Amino acid sequence: MAKINHKKGKKSRVPIRLNILFFIVFLLFSVLIVQLGIVQILKGEEHQKEIDRTIQDRTKIPVPRGKIFDRNHNIVVDNKPIYSITYTPPKGVQAKDRLEVAKDLSKYIKMYDDKEDKKKKFKTITDRDLKEYWFLLGKNEEKVIKRLSKKEKELDNAKQYKVMLKKIKDDEIAQLDEKDKEIILIKKELDKAYSLTPQIVKNKGVTPEEYALVAEHLSELPGINATTDWNREYPLKDTLKNLLGSITTEKRGIPSENLQDYLAKGYSRNDRVGISGLEKEYEDVLRGRKEQIEYTTNKKGDVIAAKTVVEGERGKDLVLTIDMEYQKRLDKIVQKHLKNAIQQHPYQNRFLEDALAIAMNPKTGEILAMSGQHYNRKKSKYENHAYKVLYDAHRPGSVIKGATMLSGYQSGVTSPGQQFFDAPIKIAGTKVKKSVSSMGWVNDIDALKRSSNVYMFYIAMRMGGEYNYRPNKSIKFNNSALQEIRNYYSQFGLGVPTGVDYPYEATGYKGDKPKNLLDFSIGQYDTYTTIQLGQYVSTIANGGYRVKPHFVKEIHDPVPKNGELGPLFKEINPEILNKIQMKDSWIDRVQEGFRQVYQTPGGTAYRTFGGKSYKPAGKTGTAENAVFHEITGERLADTNNYVLVGYAPHDDPEIAFAVVVPNLGVMSGQYPASQKIGEELLDTYFQLKKERVQTDKNDEQED
Amino acid sequence: MKLSKKHSHYMQYDLIIILILFISISLLGIFSAEHMEQYAGKNFVLKQAVWYTIGIGFVVMLQFPDLDQLKKASPYIYAFSVILLFALFISPASIAEPVKGAKSWFNPKGLPLSIQPSEFGKIAFILFLAATISKHKEKYELATIKSDIMLLGKIIGILLLPIAFISQEADFGSSMVYVFIAGVMILVSGINWKIIFTLILGGTAVIAGTFWIIVTFPELSQDILGFEQYQIDRVLNWFDPTYQDSDTYQFDLSIMALGSGQLFGKGIGNLEVYIPEAHSDFIYSIIGETFGFVGSSLVILLYFILLYRLLMLGLKTYEHSKFGAYICFGYLSLIFIHTFQNIGMIVGVMPITGIPLLLLSYGGSSILATMIGFGLIYRVAVEQSIQDEYLFK
Question: E.C. number, please (chain A) (predicted)?
Answer without folding.
Answer: 3.4.16.4
